[in-house]
């Protein structure tokens, strides 16, 4: 990991011509982004700011002084039960200086940079805060669910990618039962819960559990609940069973295109499904003639199936990568009713064979449940990282990443910058046509999107 310095001062490149008579920099909003390992504070400003930053101890504070600046609205400084920041204050100092103080719950190091306007956002000052104790945030997240409130500030801008997690069976339906009596409905629910918390911890993603406890939900109602939650993906979690107790490994299923099309036809035929008819693929179907309806649904099914296959593929790769045995190494097609939503990409994960004594034991262990949930999570995120719908925060992040500029500050190296943005040095050098590894203070680099 690269090092953060606890104190440093940066005078921005374009700040050289600054004078007290210039129009003040207006700070229109302060946004907090909670990541697993850091917090990002973004100031939306009217122009490239001239600022400096320093930390204070007892109690821990980070002070950001912005020259010739003012806050557009006082009420915007909300730390919202943040895991790391207890309060954000501001004060006017001499010569029009705006001082913003972050009261912190623990010692931190910090880094900052400015971003130029892009298609959707204006000038920004970005401050990344990393706790000095690497376990601090993990502990905070464990003890409470404060990421949820930290994420609230994002929601006003772009929506979350919504993942509907369907723990198979439930209630009177136990699912398969292992030789030692382990019930599928119990272990898949535990895996689903773990997957839920991983997704909810990711800024820009939200999980919705289809069943929230040990009760049965009809198969078609599971799809309806996913649609009601406006899910971008439906993932059903199961454990396999077979009469031969030697058979083992994980599989991923999607519905065959024919299965999805016939389900769509069933919808069209059913007058009671009028609400759903309006929703397929986001296109209104009500009042259109039968043939047009069929074509629209067919297009939706094609796109949905392509997405299902891609997500399924990513999940399967992650399961394999984590060292689990695969029962089938390609995404399988099947006619599961639960996967037949024509407008929501859907996959079903058979996590292991509960009928195999070794895998039954694994399914019952917290460690395996966590590992398989992690693989599923990584597959899902791996897909949406590059394929998020345009109105989501993840798509916005991707776009912003593509357009990021970085101004080299004193002491920064190319390798450090590559680590910070999660891209390779090679990629940065390629985009900026750099021959060597040398960078100069004040040099502006284009940062390509991460892989
Ligand atoms: Zn099952």
Please characterize this protein's 3D structure.
38% of the residues are buried. It is elongated and about 75 Å long. The strands form 4 sheets. A 6-stranded mixed beta sheet has the order 11-10-12-15-13-14, with helices on both faces. Helix 3 (184-201) crosses helix 9 (366-387), helix 5 (257-269) runs antiparallel to helix 7 (290-321) and helix 7 (290-321) packs across helix 9. The protein has 3 domains: 13-154, Immunoglobulin-like (Sandwich); 160-390, 3-Layer(aba) Sandwich (Aminopeptidase); 404-451, LysM domain (Membrane-bound Lytic Murein Transglycosylase D, Chain A, Roll). By secondary structure, it is of the alpha/beta class. It has helices at 136-143, 147-155, 184-201, 219-228, 257-269, 274-277, 290-321, 357-364, 366-387, 393-402, 414-421, 425-431; strands at 25-34, 39-45, 51-56, 61-66, 69-71, 85-92, 98-104, 108-115, 123-131, 161-167, 205-209, 233-240, 251-255, 332-334, 346-353, 405-407, 444-446. It has 12 helices and 17 strands. It is 33% helix and 24% strand. The protein binds zinc ion. Zinc ion (ZN) binds next to loops.
């Amino acid at each position: 990991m690269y090092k953060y310095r606890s104190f440093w001062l940066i005078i921005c490149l374009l700040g050289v011509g600054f004078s007290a008579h210039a129009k003040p920099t207006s700070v229109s909003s302060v946004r907090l982004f909670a990541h697993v390992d850091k917090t990002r504070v973004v100031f939306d400003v009217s122009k490239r700011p001239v600022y400096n930053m320093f930390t204070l101890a007892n109690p821990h504070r980070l002070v950001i002084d912005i020259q010739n600046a003012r806050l557009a609205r006082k009420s915007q400084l909300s730390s919202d039960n943040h895991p790391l920041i207890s309060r954000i204050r501001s004060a006017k100092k001499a010569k029009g200086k705006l001082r913003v103080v972050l009261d912190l719950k623990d010692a931190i190091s910090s880094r900052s940079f400015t971003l130029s306007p892009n298609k959707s956002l204006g000038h920004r000052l970005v401050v990344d805060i990393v706790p000095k104790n690497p376990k601090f945030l993990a502990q905070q997240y464990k003890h409470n669910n404060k990421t949820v409130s930290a994420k609230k500030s994002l929601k006003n801008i772009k929506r979350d990618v919504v993942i509907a997690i369907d723990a198979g069976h439930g209630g009177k339906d136990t699912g398969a039962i292992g030789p030692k009596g382990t019930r599928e409905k119990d272990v898949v629910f535990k895996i689903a819960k773990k997957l839920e918390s991983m997704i909810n911890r990711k800024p820009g993603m939200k999980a919705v559990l289809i069943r929230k406890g040990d009760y049965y939900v009809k198969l078609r109602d599971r799809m309806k609940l996913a649609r009601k939650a406006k899910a971008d993906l439906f993932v059903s979690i199961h454990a396999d069973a077979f009469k031969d107790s030697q058979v083992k490994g994980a599989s991923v299923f999607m519905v065959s295109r024919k299965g999805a099309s016939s389900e769509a036809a069933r919808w069209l035929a059913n007058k009671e499904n009028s609400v759903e008819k309006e929703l397929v693929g986001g296109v209104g179907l009500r009042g259109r003639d039968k043939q047009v309806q069929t074509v629209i649904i067919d297009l939706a099914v094609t796109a949905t199936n392509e997405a299902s296959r891609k997500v399924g593929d990513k999940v399967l790769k992650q399961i394999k990568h984590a060292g689990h045995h695969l029962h089938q190494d390609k995404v399988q097609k099947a006619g599961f009713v639960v996967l037949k939503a024509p407008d929501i990409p859907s996959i079903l994960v058979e996590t292991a064979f509960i009928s195999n004594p070794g895998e039954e034991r694994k399914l019952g262990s917290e460690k395996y449940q966590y590992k398989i949930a992690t693989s599923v999570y990584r597959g899902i995120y791996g897909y949406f990282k590059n394929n998020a719908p345009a109105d989501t925060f993840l798509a916005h992040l991707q776009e912003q990443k593509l357009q990021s500029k970085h101004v080299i500050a004193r002491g920064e190296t190319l390798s450090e910058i590559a680590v910070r943005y999660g891209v390779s040095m090679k990629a940065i050098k390629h985009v900026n046509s750099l021959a060597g590894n040398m960078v100069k203070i004040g040099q502006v680099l284009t940062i390509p999107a991460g892989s």
